[in-house]
Amino acid sequence: EAAREILVDAADRGETRLGVEAMDLLSEYGIPTPEGSVVDTPEDAEEVAESIGGDVVMKIVSPDILHKSDIGGVRVGVPDEEVAATYDDLVQRARTYQPDAHILGVQVQEQLDLDEGVETIVGVNRDPQFGPLVLFGLGGIFVEVLEDTTVRVAPLSEREASEMIDDVQAAPLLRGARGRDPVDESAVVDTIGRLSQLATDFPAILELDVNPLVATDDGAAAVDVRLTID
Ligand code: ADP
Ligand code: MG
């Protein structure tokens, strides 16, 4: 099927790390992703931004740049009139920070409202003994500083996936703390289950990170993905 093809094509090209290409893999598994595409000219960037409508997010696309924001490679809230200049600026930055990086272009993506959403992460790591381990947590400091994450062995039952949400100490933030609307927990559980299935179906997937998976009151969307295959 299409998912297998994406992985086989990458392997044929000798690529072991996938970024934005892996977005299609998520779509194949029924995981929602924001609207958008990868372009390689400022003019095409304008065209995509126009079809998305409103402010957009723009990100450098390079197999050699894994942490895009570390080099200033992510811009949020880009209005129409700044899309072309932002394209040039992102490419310029990447060239400055990493002169040897192979730059494929820029991803122009629909901007999600993070005031309404909560950033979560879902990761998969293949353990030689247990197979794929699935990790869930809230994004940002909850992962990096507080280490508030939970892990299960794939494949997961729906019950196990939903228990993962109960496990994290920051769960109240998903459940309407601070006057927010509670997020659609079933959409988060569903996505955890689908990623667990993806990793189970393809032993070539060594590592998979969706960071962030943005959860809102009416769904969950994978905004950024990184994948390592062997
Ligand atoms: P990287 O992890 O490589 O730095 P991301 O694509 O995760 O790049 O973007 C970094 C951050 O920018 C995200 O964690 C999120 O806060 C914000 N962001 C990225 N894409 C979007 C989007 N489509 N809508 C809203 N915020 C976004
Ligand atoms: Mg990210």
UniProtKB/TrEMBL annotation:
This is acetate--CoA ligase (ADP-forming). The chain holds residues 465 to 694 of 698 of the full protein. It comes from Halomarina salina. Keywords: ATP-binding, Ligase, Nucleotide-binding. Residues 23-59 form the ATP-grasp domain. It comes from the Archaea. GO terms for molecular function: acetate-CoA ligase (ADP-forming) activity; ATP binding.
